[in-house]
Structure prediction request, 211 residues.
Amino acid sequence: MLDELDRELEKRGLRFVRYADDIVIFVRSRKAGERVLESVTRFLRQRMKLKVNNAKSSVELPWNTKFLGFRITQMMGRTRLGIHPKALESFKDKIREATRRTRGISLQRVIHELNRFIPGWLNYYRVGLSKKLIQELSRWIIRRLRAFHWEQWKLPRTKVRNLKRLGLCHDDAVKLGNTRKGAWRVSKYRSMNYALPAKWFVQHHGLIQLR
Prediction:
């Protein structure tokens, strides 16, 4: 359908990238961008008889523009491809929903859901993910799972018993198990990190980690 638009943009000497009906056109200035947006919109409406979504059409700097979940940035003089903040927040929202502590499902079920979602997301965004970001997301997911599992234990005596079973000494288990702190705060404690390290979720429950 939009091959005709491609040919028109090529004829004008414009640099662009298109996937289905999602298109980004690159120009050197905002003024040029506004001029091109107006003329391309007119071409689509008058020549091709198509509707243009004005709410999704705008002139933006490249690093503010989201295209298929990515954005183009420049760092240390090099052009780089990165994941757009909105796409990253969407990923986090899905993790938050899967690990919501009021769901009333098992830890194994939660990890099963994550394992169905994480590999595909990782493969798609791999080229836009830095090593630092992957490490940060991995730690955050493990912390979400710790908080979820902690909430499942409910009673202090259950928490103490499970913490001792996971290797904590009696005194540390009693102290942590009887705390009144919330699950999210507890999930970052060193003793919780010792009792429920990342490898515990991987080895015992098959969690697929970000790599």
